[in-house]
Specification:
Length: 120
């Protein structure tokens, strides 16, 4: 893997986690995952903030590649982009695998220590 690919991958993962750090953006992603494509005005209704504020949240999500935006006539439509989560999902899976391995090693060491304690 080249250096640029690694750096770009890290930047994408950082953008995803930064975007999802905000509770409003997490709610937006969750609504989109449940409802699919939706108009911006419909998406904004349950939030107690202005449409420009929602648009700023959507821009962050769009830069993180978690949503896609397009227009149909005068309507602005937002849809989830699940592939945007893939790099972060892989990173989390690698961390979880490392933790599982470390816990398995610790468990094996504890069993050895217990057996030695019984033998003495």
């Amino acid at each position: 893997m080249t250096f640029n690919v690694v750096v770009n991958n890290r930047q994408r993962i950082t953008r995803v986690f930064a975007a999802l750090a905000d509770p409003t953006r997490r709610q937006i992603v969750q609504r989109l995952s449940q409802q699919g494509e939706i108009r911006v005005t419909t998406l904004a209704k349950p939030f107690r903030m202005s449409l420009p504020a929602i648009s700023r949240h959507l821009r962050v999500l769009e830069k993180a590649r978690l949503i896609k935006r397009h227009r149909r006539g005068r309507e602005h439509l937002i849809q989830p982009y699940a592939a945007g989560l893939e790099d972060a999902r892989k990173w989390i899976a690698q961390c979880a695998a490392g933790w599982e391995s470390a816990f398995d090693n610790l468990d094996a060491l504890l069993k050895i220590a217990q057996e030695k304690g019984r033998m003495q």
